[in-house]
Amino acid sequence: MAIHNPTAHHPEEDYHGHPNYFKTYFILLTIFGLSLAAGFLDNMLMAILLIFGMAIIKMMYVANNFMHLRFEPVSVWFAVIFGLVCCFIFYFGIYPDIMMVPLEVAR
Amino acid sequence: MSSTAIAQEEHAQDTSPQARRRVLMADMPKGRLAMWWLIASEVVIFGGLIATYIMFRLRHPEWGHAAAHTSTPMGALNTFFLLTSSLTIVLAHDAANRKDLKGAVRNMLITLGFGLGFLVVKSIEYSTEISHGFTLTAELFWSFYFLMTGLHALHVIAGMTTIFIVMLGVRKGKNLQRVEFAGLYWHLVDLVWILLFPLLYIAH
C-alpha cells in the first residue's frame, strides 16, 4: 500500500487548480482605475481612505489569486503576518522619536 | 500498518481545498517554502521602510508639495506594466504546469518585456526629477523617494534576472517548478509597487 511521503515533491500532485486569472486581472485594473479617480476627490480624508483601502484590496487579490496564498497552509499566512507584526512593533517603537520631537528640531 | 501510516494515507486521499489548508509547512515543496520565507523577510524590509515613511509624512504635511512633483501618469503606467506582468508570469506558471514549454517561455518573455518597460519609465522619471534639482539630498522626501523606488527597482532587476535564468532551463524542459518560484518573487515586486504608488504618487 502506497504511503504518502510529505517530503517528496510531486508537482502534478501538488497542483491545486487555479482561479480565473483574466477575471482577476480585469478586477485589478478596475480597482486601479478607481483609485486613480479617487485622487481627484475634494475630501482629502475620504480620498486617502479610498486610495489606501483599494491598494490593500489589490494586494489581497494578487496574493490570493496570483500567488495562490489562499491554497497555502495556514502556517504560511502566519509567516507573512509575523513580518507585518514586526513592522508594527518597529512603527510604535520609533514613534516617539519622530512624532514627539519639536518640528524646529525635526526639520 | 501503524496508525501514523494510516493517518498519512487518509490525508493523501483527502485532496479537498480544506484538507490542503490543514497541512503544515513541512508538507510544502521546499522551493516554494523557501520563497515564502524570503517573501516574509522582504515584508519586514519594505514594511519597515514604508512604516518610517508614513510616520515622517504624517509629521511633515509640507512634503505634499514635494510629492506633487512626482509624475502620476508615469507611476500609473508603471503600475499597469507590473499588474500586467503579474498576469503573464502566472500564465507562464500555468503553462509550465501543463508542460506547455512554448507557452511558458512566451509568457516569461512578455513578463521580461514589461519589466524592462518599467525600468525604462523609471529611468525617464529619475532623469527628469534630477534635472529639476530633485536629487537624493534635496529634501528628506526625495531621500525616501529615491531609496524606496531605487530598492524596488533593484528587486525588479533581480526578478528579471531570475526569470531569465529560469526561462533558459524551461526552454530545455528542465526545472519547470521553478517558474512558480520565480513568479512568486515577481508578484512580491508587484505587491510592493501597489503600495508605493499611492504613497509617493497619488497622496499629495
TrEMBL record, chain A:
Alphabetical keyword list: Cell membrane, Membrane, Transmembrane, Transmembrane helix
Topological relation to the membrane, as annotated: Multi-pass membrane protein
Main location: membrane
Keyword RNA-binding appears in the UniProt entry: no
InterPro entries found in the cross-reference section: Cyt_c_oxidase_su4_prok (IPR005171)
Recorded GO CC terms: plasma membrane
TM region positions: 21-38, 44-62, 74-94
Subcellular location: Cell membrane
Protein name as annotated: Caa(3)-type oxidase subunit IV
Organism: bacterium (Candidatus Blackallbacteria) CG17_big_fil_post_rev_8_21_14_2_50_48_46
